[in-house]
Write a structure and sequence with these properties.
This protein is an alpha+beta fold. The chain folds into two domains: about 120 residues, Nucleic acid-binding proteins (OB fold (Dihydrolipoamide Acetyltransferase, E2P)); about 120 residues, OB fold (Dihydrolipoamide Acetyltransferase, E2P), CATH 2.40.50.1070. It is built from four helices and twelve strands. A hairpin with a 7-residue loop joins strand 11 and strand 12. It starts with a strand and ends in a 27-residue tail after the last strand.
């Protein structure tokens, strides 16, 4: 059955649990209702915005009884940016909620019950995303290129200038990347960047839909040298990704003119 919009109605619910996407789960008039922004144990007022045959979707409009697990989101863009879903929940409670989801899936889907459950492994609460895919989108009304995760429940790239879950050194690149991409001739044909952070190097894999011209290549090289990162190019599918700059990381063929060949007048073809 297709999801049908309905006129917004309101209600009050007690959040019974949090699902794997960080959305509160409640039962209202016997029907499962997923309520964004709710935390286990809270009593909330909500606006019902969507309905399917066996569940409804809603959003918290007011927290009537607040959970002790509720915290102030650290990121100024939380709620708009879709990169995070649970910053309003204490970090330890996030891990506990995810463990409960795992246990429920084992019992409900796998039909198994573990004999022993080891304590969960806790990592850093911030700056932990060593791999990520971030959007790159030119928006004339914004005066340039946006770089970041997509907005929540949207295909638009969020207008952000920092990110708390990316490593600090990578978060600090968002504004310089915005500024650099805005100057590129191919800025409207570069939809995304894949990020991979290692112990000794940070790699940015640039997806480009058309060959990258020499002037744009020069700007990308200068950015890499200035910020100590590596650029890889991806002209088509994932298997076409290959190093571009620095020079020592680059194979003999590339989609861009070689920095060692200033007389090149156009992009070279890449090996697929």
């Amino acid at each position: 059955m297709t999801e049908a919009p309905r006129k917004a109605s309101t209600g009050i619910a007690t959040i019974e649990s949090i699902d794997h996407e960080g959305i509160g789960v409640a039962h209202v008039d016997g029907k499962v209702t997923f309520i964004e922004g709710g935390i286990t144990g809270e009593r909330v007022a909500f606006a019902r915005r969507r309905s399917r045959g066996n569940f409804d979707l809603g959003t918290v409009t007011e927290v009537l009884v607040e959970s002790s697990q509720r915290v102030r989101p650290r990121c100024a863009y939380f709620g708009t940016c879709g990169g995070c879903a649970m910053q309003h929940v204490d970090a330890a409670a996030q891990v506990a909620a995810k463990q409960r989801v795992l246990e429920d899936n084992l019992a409900r889907i796998g039909k198994v019950s573990p004999e022993t459950i080891l304590p969960p492994i806790h990592g850093p609460a911030w700056g932990y995303r060593q791999r990520a895919r971030i959007g790159v989108h030119y928006v004339a009304k914004k005066g340039g290129v946006l770089v970041g995760f997509h907005e929540r429940k949207s295909s638009f790239v969020a207008d952000v200038r920092s990110c708390e879950v990316l490593p600090p050194a990578v978060s600090a690149l968002i504004v310089p990347l915005r500024e650099m991409f805005t100057t590129l001739a191919l800025r409207e044909r570069m939809p995304q960047v894949e990020l991979a952070v290692g112990e000794a190097v940070t790699v940015l894999v640039l997806r480009h839909l058309d060959p990258v011209g020499e002037e744009d290549c020069a700007k990308l090289r200068a950015f890499a040298d200035r910020h100590g990162i590596q650029w890889w190019f991806q002209p088509k599918g994932p298997d076409t990704a290959h190093p571009f700059h620095p020079e020592h990381a680059r194979p003999s063929t590339t989609t861009c003119p070689s920095s060692a060949s200033p007389s090149a007048t156009g992009p070279r073809s890449s090996r697929r």
